[in-house]
Every structure is written in structure tokens, then in C-alpha cells.
Model the fold of this input.
Amino acid sequence: MLKNKTALVTGSTSGIGLGIAKSLAAQGANLVLNGFGDATGPVAEVKAAAAHAGHDVQVLFHPADMSQPRQIAEMMADAAQQLGRVDILVNNAGIQHVARVENFPHEKWDAILAINLSSAFHATQLALPAMQAANWGRIINVASAHGLVASAEKAAYVAAKHGIVGLTKVVALENATSGVTCNAICPGWVLTPLVQKQVDARAAANSWTNAQATEELLREKEPSLQFTTPEELGALAVFFCSPAANNTRGVAWAMDGGWTAQ
Ligand code: NAD
Done:
């Protein structure tokens, strides 16, 4: 379905971004991966996902720090130069920090706003002209259940995620008469390194085992008592890229086990 398209997924060396990259590659898209850490494993995983589905795709990696607008611009230019243009942009890179507002470190606030929100604005601004010229494009913002509702001790994260849902709607409206769509995905808990850190903190604070801390984390917010998986989120991203989603614009689609239905 996505043969000859190029997808760029920010923060795709791990977790949800890597899952979405694999799902798009399995539909035949070329991929630009991004994130911190050694990219050898993620690049191989994405190529294998494509090969498993019978596709031979190109997979590049760019190590841009998404808190740095100049590095974002270099990555977007590199992707366009090497693969033609970016047809699908998935703004996924994100970090978390947990503290009450009165104790929230300023540098953590700035970093979360820069990586979880401003990076999506910068990448979107740079991706749009080529998408508009082609009259086809897909921008998918990985928000969160925290883009729809709040939790204590997550001021920066909740502010950034509500912000990216707003950005999603504006980009969708500004391009509503074109073939360029913009939508957000709002996952509940997904067991990635970002969440494992929160499980570890709960286990340490309460002298719980990993299993007890995991169960408590789910019970507090997620009625299904199940994690959403990167594969399920990847399938939703594929749907947003499909012709069936041509007129799906500006939605913030929860995949959260009932978290925001409460
Ligand atoms: P993760 O920690 O597994 O992956 C985060 C990715 O972002 C990694 O590839 C990391 O290298 C990259 N990254 C971090 N800072 C970066 C920077 N400055 N520049 C470039 N890359 C950077 O986390 P995840 O759980 O897969 O989270 C991915 C996205 O999903 C985030 O936006 C997160 O807020 C969102 N999300 C996660 C959950 C969850 O339960 N895990 C739920 C809802 C939303």
C-alpha cells in the first residue's frame, strides 16, 4: 500500500516509534529512523519487517536531537535529498519527568516542551510544502491519553500532549481541502522504556515487585488492565495512511483500554 512512499518517524530507535516504523515498512514504505542510541538493531528490525512482508525498502537513520530546531532541519533536508521527499511524518519522540509543579525542574519543563511539542511544529513546518505540492501527505502525531485528560505530577507532559492535540487540529484544518491529513494517536499505557521507568519508581517507593507495580499502574488508569502494544499503534498509523482515512482529519484517536472513557 505504501510502496514508493517515504516515512520519517522521530524517536524510532525504541518503543512505539520503532513499532510504527516496522508497520509502515511492512506496507512497503522507505523509512527514515531517528533517535538516541545505537541504530544498528532498529535499522535491521525495520528491514526485516519489510522483508517479511515481501518488500525491499530503504532504511536510513538520522541522529537529530529533536530539541534542536537546526538539527531537525538538517534531518528533513537529508531525508528529502536521499529519498525524494517525506510523504509520511510521524512525530513520536518524547520524554517524561514526574514531579509536582512546585518542584518541577525548569530544565525538565523546557526539554519536555521542546521534544514532545515544539519538535512536531518544526518538523511539520518543514514537511508540509512538499506534501502540499504532491497533494498527498500524512502527518501523525503520537500524543497520549494525557493529551485528553490529566494526571498529577505530569505538568509538562500533559501540557505538551494537550498542545500537540491542538496542533494536530490546526494542521488538519489548514490542509482540509487537500490530500494532506493530520491526525493524533492517543495511547494509554504501552510497556516501553519510558513506562518501565515509572513502574520501577513505583516498585522502589512501595517495596513492590515489578509484577505488583505493573498491576497497580494499570489498575489506576486502564480499565482493560492490559497494555496497548506498539504493533496495535502501528496498525492504526497504517490505517491513517490508507485511502479509507482520506477524510479522517484532526482526530485524537485513543487506544487506551478505556482510560479516557471513564
Ligand atoms: P521510548 O523511551 O521507548 O522511546 C522514545 C524515543 O524517543 C527513543 O527512540 C528515544 O531515543 C527518542 N528520543 C528521546 N529524546 C529524543 C531527542 N531529544 N531527540 C531525538 N529522539 C529522542 O518511549 P515510548 O514509550 O516509545 O514513547 C514514544 C512516544 O509515545 C512519546 O511521545 C510518548 O510520550 C508517547 N506515549 C507513550 C506512552 C507509553 O505508555 N509508553 C503512552 C502514551 C504516549
Notes: Residues 106-134 form the longest helix (29 residues). The first strand starts at residue 6 and ends at 9. Residues 6-190+229-261 form a domain with the Rossmann fold fold (CATH 3.40.50.720). The chain has a mean pLDDT of 98.
